[in-house]
Design a protein that fits this description.
This protein is 70% helix and 5% strand. By secondary structure, it is mainly alpha-helical.
Length: 121
């Protein structure tokens, strides 16, 4: 069972996962650019994620997900993809669907998400 972390931390972990799929290494500056956040905000968030053992940061500043960080990131990413796709199939504009999925993915219970997943797959 994944322990609950706050929405902001979930978004950072999901962003690290997504960036790691397209970049050889992920750095704070990449996250700041992707999320349109100040580097200082990202630095504070990375310190918190490191303290909770969700990421490791090399001396070069390369950010890697730990097993727990990856588990949370993949859960949020799966929810985002599935909910976005579902909303688009219901006729919602892709951009709006993605924004709504981003909000829903953090608050929906595992039980409700699994029910939706079983219904639409």
């Amino acid at each position: 069972m994944i322990m609950h972390i706050n929405e902001s931390a979930e978004n950072y972990l999901e962003t690290i996962l997504m960036l790691s799929k397209v970049k050889p290494v992920v750095r704070s500056v990449d996250i700041a650019e992707e999320l349109n956040f100040k580097k200082s905000s990202v630095s504070v968030a990375m310190k918190n994620l490191r303290e909770k053992n969700h990421i490791t940061v090399t001396k070069e500043g390369f950010i890697y997900l730990t097993d727990s960080g990856r588990e949370i990131a993949e859960m949020i990413f799966e929810r985002h993809e599935l909910l976005t796709d579902w909303l688009v199939r219901l006729g919602v504009d892709k951009e709006i669907a993605s924004e709504d999925a981003c909000r829903i993915e953090h608050v929906i219970s595992s039980e409700s998400f699994e029910a939706i997943k079983q219904h639409i797959l």
